[in-house]
Amino acid sequence: MGVLSGIRVLDCSIAMAGPFAAQRLGDLGADVVKVEPVTGEWQRHVSAGGAGGNKVNVSFLSLNRNKRSLAIDLKSPDGKQVLLELVKTADVFLQNYRPGVAKRLGVDYESLSAINPRLVYVSISGYGEDGPYMNRPGQDLVLQGMSGAMLSAGREGEAPTAAGQYLVDAITAYTAFEGALAALFHRERTGEGQLVQVNMLDSITTIQMQELSVFTVGHKPQKRSAEPHAHVYIRAPYGAFATSDGFIIVAFPKLKTFGEVIGEESFLTMVDETDTWSRRDEIFAKTREKLKAKTTAEWLELMRAADIWCGPVYGYADLVEDEQIKHNGTFVEYEHPTEGLVKTPGFPIRFSKTPSTVARGAPLTGQHTREILSEAGYDAAEIAALERAGAIASGEL
Fold this sequence. Notes:
Blueprint: E1 8-11, H1 17-27, E2 31-36, H2 58-63, E3 67-72, H3 77-87, E4 92-95, H4 101-105, H5 109-115, E5 120-125, H6 140-146, H7 167-190, E6 194-199, H8 200-206, H9 209-216, E7 238-242, E8 247-251, H10 255-262, H11 272-278, H12 280-290, H13 296-305, E9 310-312, H14 316-320, H15 323-328, E10 331-336, E11 340-345, H16 369-375, H17 380-389, E12 392-393
Parallel strand pairs: 1-2, 1-4, 2-3, 4-5, 5-6
Antiparallel strand pairs: 3-12, 7-8, 8-9, 10-11
Helix pairs in contact: 1-7, 7-8
EC number: 2.8.3.-
InterPro entries: CoA-transferase_III_domain (IPR050483), CoA-Trfase_fam_III (IPR003673), CoA-Trfase_III_dom3_sf (IPR044855), CoA-Trfase_III_dom_1_sf (IPR023606)
Pfam families: CoA_transf_3
């Protein structure tokens, strides 16, 4: 029994941010009903990395475990009525339609809260529900560019490098997950539901609390260096450096200690609080040259002995085999009926009494339609009639 056991979530979202947020709720025991078109959610048909899978591609598989699939046509009056019936007993409704679409479909907060005042309604958008950018597409890389963060690393004058993951989507998912939990807690105290609005632009902006405060309060300019320093507001040396056989991370060591370890005499007389900023490019360049002399393993041993913050640069193949990752149980494995053994990141929060579990893998389109409607009070004849009318679809394994 997860900590959210007994909570019913209607997940009407697509792509990554919404489904990921709903999956987190499912990981904690919520009954998540994925409401998708009769042809399947968009992500079923778009596979990241070309990983198509057997019947379920890996993108969809990774974002939709611990859910049941209800396939309905919301543009059909009968299909829409099915959803409204389920809203009566739902706790959370989550959607990431473009602004205005929910209202056109009749599933906006005002309409659904009139049916169920206790409903927590989570709405995710790219830029906000209104305003000059409300109709722009909220795409991860586009938002990374707008966030300002890409110009806090790398070389001055060179094109910035994007994050190596869908960073804005993931952060937005966690923001929505947090918002849903907070609203459920409020409901426990007051009995009332509410509208929770989350947008990608605010999500990626507000996690830069420290960096943006240095700019807005400390009035320090965001200026990249000639060398590929990893963060404009952290002193040198700070970044990834090549060794004789790979790469190593070094994070702002005390220059005297660092100079002694790598054999750079000029560092011994530098002042940490001033020279590490004013001579940043020089420090970076000298560090880069010195670290080419030994292997990553050799440097890690020397630097750790001197209490210098350092670490390896992993690829995914290294990460999944890391001893701490294995110790933590960071990845979970389970059998999926069509995709076989699935190994995927699990839930990162540990609860002593209500642990997260993988109760089911990502569903096929409409796999649980009949089951969910039966629970909602529809009899077999009514379900069959809805299927014949095309208002719903049911899938089989």
